[in-house]
Amino acid sequence: MTTLFTTTNSSTIKRLLQIFNRREKIRFGKLFLGILITVFLEIIGLASILPFMELVANPQAIDNSIWLERAYNFFNFESREQMLIATGLGVVALIGISSATSIATTWMQYKYSWSTAHSLGMRLLQTYLKKPYKFYLTHNTTELQTYIMGEVGSLTSGVIIPVIEIISRSLVSIIIFALLLLVDSKIALVMFGSLGGAYLLIYLARQGFLKRIGHHRINMNMLRYKNLSELLSGIKTVSVYNEQPYFYRRYEEASREFSDVQPKYNLVLSAPRYILEFLAFGSILAITIYLLTTLGDIQSAIPRLTLYAVAGYRLLPALQMAFSAAAKVRHNFPVLDRLHEDLVFSLQQSPVSRTAPESIDFNESIRLKNVSYTYENNDHPVIKDLNLEIQKGQTVAFVGSTGSGKSTLIDMIAGLLVPGKGRIMIDHQLLQSGSIRAWQDLIAYVPQDVFLFDDTIARNIAIGREDEEIDFDRLEDVTRIADIYDFIVQEQKQGFHTEIGEKGVRLSGGQRQRLGLARALYRQPEVLILDEATSALDSITERGIIDALIAFPADITTIIIAHRLSSVRHADCIYVLEEGKVVAKGNYSTLMHTDDTFKNMVQLSS
Known about the structure:
By secondary structure, this protein is α/β, with parallel strands linked by helices. It has two domains: 2-345, ABC transporter transmembrane region fold; 365-605, Rossmann fold.
């Protein structure tokens, strides 16, 4: 039993304590204390059975036991029968209190399990949200969702609670063993050795298997989430291509693999119980024969037989629960490994800055000096020694073929990616980790694929604000500029309070882009970044929106990425990118006369 405890829990407890914050450690300690009290009451209830059964088998035992005689005199019993009844009621009361305490402790375990799952899930989400943008370029978001919403629960139900069970049930087993040793050491050694030894051998034989299927279960669970997410998020394309059977099969294969793992795991948990029940029954028979042959009197054997039977009744589930708990920990150890890495190791690698964030002012220009960037697992830089300057209030455009580095350049200007080489200066201040948050407060960003969530038009535009916090006069202004005001107030019965569905599914592509533009303007930014933000609009609507932005009274610096070059006709400066370098710059008219690459791009896009 000791080996089972130490092999399973030494590193597990250390890792759990590293994961827990102070509040979680306190709650863990309270639960553990409650379990210790329950264990103590269980043992007291068990120990009280022996004197009671001695009185039942032989009321004259009072005269032969100093402890029974003292109890008889202390409580002033008038007869042996009165003491027998009182002792029986006392045993029932102790067992009743023990059972009630067990129920309360079980409720504490369930409450602790779910509240800890919530707490760890929120901390894990917070950890992911603090990761830099490049983290999401190399991690599948479905994998992150699986850990936050699923595997955190596996940690609490499959590691934390089982660890507590192992400790408590080990204590129960050890104390029962000590009690039996006091009564008859030979029987105790045989009984505990056969039951505990059998469990230990089974566990040691299956621990490698449990860890392997634990890894497989996690992988298949993530694959289930991933395949289902891809199917449902791409249902429009899947339906048009009539490929529902293909994506159905992908999910079915992962789901079947996941479901095949569970019976194997459950069998390892439950099978030892039936083996041990057989051994326990055989042990009771052997003890009965032994007592009858050594004591020679069934009446003298009854108290001890009763004690051994009740001890076996308590010991068998204690050993089974300890074994099952150890198997659960081994099975879910990969979850503990991953969450320990995300919640503890990553914080040690990137400690949270204790310094206050820097403020930043933008009054003059954005300058990029010898900037280069290379993505992970890629030997070729996407941006190469790039130098440029954007004056405040300018409208600047970046154009170039696919893969020329336009989006990467925008991501660096927006503070999402940090240059691998070179510097980005805002006025005379270096853009770095301490000032990125303040810089992003000045920026509004409109991507080609606008992020919309299942809520009202108003809340999607004034993102992060409740209705009472929304400035509806500003909503009207920005939706007029984005050319979507008439659609909202004339075609939607609930106006700005219209629900748009998941990812804005009830809107057209152009309407989604216009909502994204309205959201950016509602933010009242100093820098507006448009990354193919009008690609879903017709040429007339696009030109109207661009003209409205140019006429917008605020002193906004606008940065545009566009394939349709008509949208950059009015830009103050256009940068032509090729393989991560600026190969030409100037206004539309100048480039049309001086740069053949730009001229060809215009002709191809018209």
